[in-house]
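Prompt: Have a read of the protein record below and flag anything odd:
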Amino acid sequence: MDSFTHIALGACVGEAFFEKGFGKKAMFWGALAQSIPDIDFIANLWMDVPSALLAHRGFTHSIFFMMLLVPIFALIADKVHQPHNIRFSKWIVFFLVEISIHLLLDSFNNYGIGWLEPFSHKRFSFNIIYVADPFFSIMPLVSFAFLIYLNAYHLHRSRWWKLGLFTPMLYVLFGIFNKLVVDYKVEKSMTYSSEKSISYFTTPAPFQNFLWYIVVKKKNAFDIGYYSILDHSDSIHFSRFEQNSFYIDSVDNYEALQKLIRFSENFYTIKKLNNTLIFNDLRFGQVLGWRNPSSDFVFHYFIQHPDENKLVVQRGRFQSWNLNETIFFFNRILGN
């Protein structure tokens, strides 16, 4: 999830835990606790791009790090607010819930999160919610604004934290239902395919949960398509992308490439363009792929030119967006 959503949800949880006047102070602690795991962004200051990609949502998003952090936060908050009648165990539970929510939310999108670091490099991603979805975030942000504005003892504060927490919970359930529907359609289409499929994943297209991006892995290629839960037909049109993994043998910067492959969870292709090899991580989608099935992938890394990869995860995501493309996008969501 984006940082603003984490802050808003953290504040709402703080209000929910304490209320009765202390909620406004707890909002600060909640927002801070929900933000701390993202401190890993500073790795960009000294790491190369492939290493930084793996560091983000790695150790600082692990259960081990959370267990180290929770008692530290609890001790600091307990000392700062002396004297008070809050049990230390309540501080522990509060910060445990706050950071757990952050780790759970980040597992809902397609970047992946290292819950088991440093003991295992396995990353978890459930691909249920797009990383920045206004339908998920709007209510927590509105509730956060009202909780900041209202008096600490205002009677309506309870109403706002409930809206800020339960509305996105319902949206997550909506996303889970949509994913089950889309996965069923994909598996159904795979049964009619004459070519064996190895694996697949589905994840929402940008900013919503109706139109889904689909990648089916074949032996040496990938089939990519889109499906809206409002589509009038069960059929899914796929476009073929060859993996071209044979190019790996000619790469000098082998260690960096292996990190990229690990990060991509093997959902990647390599493309040659003007004597330059481009690594595409398929998990992050295409630039307007629902209109142009052959469009570039938003994650593309120039293997021979590492200094040109400072922005790599969402490269070119919005370069062609305009009013006409936005209208087309909404029409595609509607099944047209």
